[in-house]
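# nightly structure sweep
# worker-07 picked up a monomer target from the shared queue
# config: single-sequence mode, recycle default, output format = structure tokens
# input follows
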Amino acid sequence: MEKNDNVLTNGQKTKKEIDALELRLQYGDFTTLAAALSCSPDAAKKRFIRGNSEAFDALDRIVTSRENLVKDLQNNI
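# output follows
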């Protein structure tokens, strides 16, 4: 994943897209996002809420990966 020069405003996401992803969040997702973005959890959350595409895309991958992992593990038990 390439880093954008302006991490606060490049590729803004809409409020509707942000709200849809927020419904799928769980405890710890912003901590994982912060590690991926090399920033604090508060900064990662603010980037996501502002609609930063890098933060949004990374968080979407985190959530989707978690959901797929849980589904795979449940199917194998």
